[in-house]
């Protein structure tokens, strides 16, 4: 009878995992620094390795291009912020409170968040974490307004994505000079007004069905 093959065991070293995550953080922080300096289109893999203080091979093995580095920076920043963010809303009425509780996280990681926004504005990428967030908002809006047209729900979801995300925060903070408290108040107010009007439209259409 043929002998059974020995069972292959996977081995994960906590020390190795910590070292890998530390190296990733060094790389991503280096990328973020180039972006905030305005070098988003000119930095190289070698530049990142030099600034992070690690070998070129260590960076290139996982991120061989500038685009790969930028997309990974978005995912890394999303993970970092996501671990601190409040629970995602399940109904449309919860969205204003969601952004109100998210503002302190944006403030805590302002440099990285602004770098992420620069990446999205400069490159034609749509990272997975952003897709999941957008799909969540689309789903909530669709479920809240079953009697409204697709055109109305699509444009409403687009505005909510902007107001309830980091882009709305950075616009009011950096472009219009509001402080954190006023930014949170303005965004939650705008969302509440929008959602209230949307529900009014839904009720009006529903009453005629």
From TrEMBL:
Residues 44-63 bind DNA. Keywords: DNA-binding, Transcription, Transcription regulation. It comes from the Bacteria. GO terms for molecular function: DNA-binding transcription factor activity; transcription cis-regulatory region binding. Pfam families: TetR_N. Residues 21-81 form the HTH tetR-type domain. This is Transcriptional regulator, TetR family. The lineage of its organism: Bacteria, Bacillati, Bacillota, Clostridia, Eubacteriales.
